[in-house]
Amino acid sequence: MKVTIIGLGLIGGSMAIALRKTGLASELIGIDLNEANATKAVELGIVDKILSADIALPQSDLVILAIPVNATCSYLPTVLDSVKPSATVIDTGSTKNLICKAVANHAHRGQFVASHPIAGTEYSGPEAAFFGLFDGKTNIICEQEKSSEPSLALAKRIFDALKLKTIFMDPVGHDKHVAYVSHLSHVSSFLLGQTVLDMEKDEKNIFNLAGSGFASTVRLAKSSPDMWAPIFEQNAEYLGHALAEYIMHLQRFQYHLMKRDGNELHKMLTKANEIKRVLDLK
Q1: Three-point CA angle 149, 56, 40, nearest 5°
Q2: Cα 143–chain centre separation
Q3: Backbone angles phi, psi at 228, to 5 degrees
């Protein structure tokens, strides 16, 4: 199977590595606007070669878009215009509603499978890609009823090979729930990092005093702004609701803190501890 990966960063690169190791890809073609990333992906053996879209897309059996969600919205219709009738197109975006709307009336909508493999690290670029990134992680397919049976079957075959656990959601529900569980945590991490940088002017103190708690909490702030700013923008409605609730809890905590009310602080922390029970179910 001839596969074209559009976007040769962590997600696209890791998918390419997995497709090569599992033997599903007979040839891996890369497309990336960043020439340094494209060159590095070939040097690392992630893809076999780099081609322009007008050459790569018509000959591909499978096309995977692993680019920022705003770029996916803009480029996906062109991809569907360019691929052969038997090809399947998959995206990996962390938002789904606007992406699905972008091709809702496209003549080749059935060739597209809207998906979101929930996997990643704080690192980016082809050097960050590795085999096993997707092992045991959850993958979400949206609007499976709008994908053709052959395209949906191929997508499931790919996700199974990547050892992803696939579930199904509608695009609006997807964006709502990932806003609470994923996107809010990234906002929190980014802004915690910004707060510490603003308040602690001596960077040596940040380096010397940052324990494992700070490092793990702020880890996501090292993620790519090129990827995350469009995600936040596209999911502004649900992320805004989540932020309002989060800010309310922060304000309540600050109020009890300033009152030196240890009992109320303890109650808040105890209630928050319930998250252990939920996460232990995984």
Answers
A1: 115
A2: 18
A3: -85, -35
DSSP string, 151-220: HHHHHHHHHHHTT-EEEEE-HHHHHHHHIIIIIHHHHHHHHHHHHHHHH---HHHHHHH--HHHHHHHGG
Can you list the alpha helix ranges (DSSP code H) found in 34-148?
A: 35-43, 53-59, 69-82, 97-102
**Collapsing DSSP states into helix, strand and coil, what is residue 149?**
helix
Q: Pairing mode, if any, of strands 138-142 and 112-117?
A: antiparallel
d(CA 118, CA 275): 19
Give the global pTM: 0.90
Helices 184-199 and 236-258: crossing angle, nearest 10°?
50
Q: Which domains does the chain have, with CATH numbers?
A: 2-169 (3.40.50.720), 174-279 (1.10.3660.10)
User: How is residue 260 written in tokens?
Assistant: 């030196």
Give per-10-residue mean pLDDT for the chain (282 aa): 98 98 97 96 98 98 98 98 98 98 98 97 94 97 98 98 97 97 94 84 67 78 93 97 96 97 96 85 54
> In terms of C-beta distances under 8 Å and separation of at least 24 residues, what long-range contacts does 19-28 make, across chains too?
19/158, 19/161, 21/131, 22/161, 22/162, 24/157, 24/158, 24/161, 25/1, 25/62, 26/1, 26/2, 27/2, 27/3, 28/3, 28/4
Contact 17, 74 (CB under 8 A): no
* Measured distance CA(21)–CA(84) in Å, rounded: 26
Structure tokens at 18: 């997995």
Nearest to 181 by CA among 233, 128, 246: 246
